[in-house]
Amino acid sequence: MLSQINSVIFCTTQVIQVIIFAAGCYFFGISIFGWVLGKSQDSKEFLPQKKFALIIAAHNEEKVITHIVHSLYRQNYPKNLYDIFVIADNCTDNTAKIAREHGAIVLERTNYTKKGKGHALEWMFSKIFEMDEKYDAISVFDADNLVSANFLLEMNKQLCKGHKVVQGYIDSKNPYDSWITCSYSIAFWLSNRVFQLPRYHLGLSCGLCGTGFCIDLDTLKNIGWGATCLTEDLEFTLKLALRDMKVAWAHDAIVYDEKPITLKQSWSQRKRWMQGHADCASRFLGSLFKKAFKHGDLVAFDCAVYLFQPIRLIFIGLITIMMWIQSVFPQSPFFNLKYVFPTEVWYIFVILQFVYGPTVILAEKRFKLKTIMGFLVYPFYCLTWIPITIQGFMNKNNKDWSHTDHSREISINDLEKA
Questions:
Q1: Is the pTM higher than 0.85?
Q2: Among 23, 54, 169, 309, which residue has the least CB neighbours within 10 Å?
Q3: Which tens digits make up the pLDDT trace of 109-130?
């Protein structure tokens, strides 16, 4: 009996190792194009042409709403070519009043059955469609954001080049408040350079990040929003992929996002992300793989592989735990773990995980002492993803929206010079 159990464990770990290694090589291979090709995009400039409806989704954000509105009025873009809208969604504070006082057009929404950002955006988009004022595109932001002055110029450029959906660069406005904010910031800096940028260069689809993105209005009308799960950004990205559309990238259109300060806040937010991710995987994974293999669609394949990423993370955690147990109990009959590839290959693979990230940050000119210290605790942040992922997948059918409180009152002038 023991030999049979050991045989099953042995075979399972072999398969898991192959999946981990293959997926790691796939993501690493794609990320290289963020280095080889750099962040350069078409240098051709376009005069301001597109008219934007800028939409800020806000739920009880009286502490930070002033700063996002101010940063949008600070755009290096003709003021007659954009309007600022605030969705005061189920607010019980002074968010609506403060936003109006600072010049935003405020629409108040009260709906306690369809809660969450996805539902609020769908409601707002329907209002935009019905307005006498006509817009070429919408851009979506969170109330805790700060927006770089050239954001609309960069989005105008990408829209004029023919792109229909564009994601901007998500930066951090409070990277050094705590070890959690530093870890979040490192994760986003890495994502921008090794996930988003190379996919843009390769003609794959970048991923929407929930904020700092732009959608051509006619495109939005034609395909509809319909993204109302806990991760509406991922849901809409996958919906686009199944319709032969993809998300482009604007590396210089920067949005500064407030990162959670405590582990408790972070855990709650990331659990919601994983619940939404699991929900999307259960609904879209099969269709994406079918489209990928039936039609040779690389965009659909890449999106499907991304959906599988949390499972890979769990596998890595499982193998790590088994390796630790085997090192502590070398004679254990239950953990006969053998490497599929030569140990030298695995050592190189592990070393790359620790060296590659800091090198990416260095390329982004963020190699500060505080960032170096952040990399010392970043592995612990990564490890917390394992229980969060498991918890999120187990609770994927729970659609209750958990709001992250924002209190970091930083202005755009604190981060950038006009």
A1: yes
A2: 309
A3: 999 888 889 999 999 999 999 9
